């Protein structure tokens, strides 16, 4: 992940290139909504931290796009099924500010105990986080998070989602990247979402 994050563009106004994409400098250490879903809605989101693989994506990457081999899809599904907790660590990411999801979780739990509406809970929690962590001004207060990276068997191709959130709103894109000459190259931009 360090080498991928080292290729980021710092200016959101510039278009993505084949070897860079925009990501802010404030990141959650892991996918923020696994615990939050449990706290706010009362149910846990099992595979929320994985990149979006629905709609026959892996089959498309093997047959149509010829990016993966059939054995890669088995390897990727095994990673997803047997995943351990994917977490970014501040010590490995100079130039980034890594925010612990536990901090967001604690703010949300405090607001739940005060019987505040769900939408207000996240809005207030993000205002506190933005003040506390001085979220990247170019990102307009968004905090970014990455999915668990899912690698091909040779570890040279990866599927990863780059997302950002303002609390109740956000957006993200799933990328297929290939490592070439020590750099990650964007092969495909897959599913994008916005709310």
Question: What report would you give on this structure?
Answer:
With 195 residues, the protein is α+β, with helices and mostly antiparallel strands. The protein has one domain. It is 31% helix and 23% strand. It has helices at residues 2-5, 33-41, 57-63, 70-81, 101-113, 118-133, and strands at 26-28, 97-99, 143-146, 150-151, 157-165, 170-180, 183-194. Strands 3, 4, 5, 6 and 7 form a five-stranded antiparallel beta sheet that branches. The chain has a two-stranded parallel sheet with strand order 1-2. A hairpin with a 4-residue loop joins strand 5 and strand 6. Helix 5 (101-113) packs across helix 6 (118-133). The longest helix has 16 residues, at 118-133. It is globular, with a radius of gyration of 17 Å. Mean pLDDT is 80; it is low at 39-44.
Secondary-structure class: alpha+beta
Helicity range of the residues? 25-40%
Amino- and carboxy-terminal Cα gap: 26 Å
Please report the number of helical segments.
6
Number of strands: 7
Q: How large a portion of the residues is in β-strands, by DSSP E?
A: 15-25%
The ordered H/E elements are HEHHHEHHEEEEE
The count of domains is 1
Profile the largest sheet.
5 strands, antiparallel
How would you state the average pLDDT, rounded? Answer: 80
Q: What is the overall shape?
A: globular
Q: Over all CA atoms, what is the radius of gyration?
A: 17 Å
Contiguous runs where pLDDT drops below 50 for at least 5 residues:
39-44
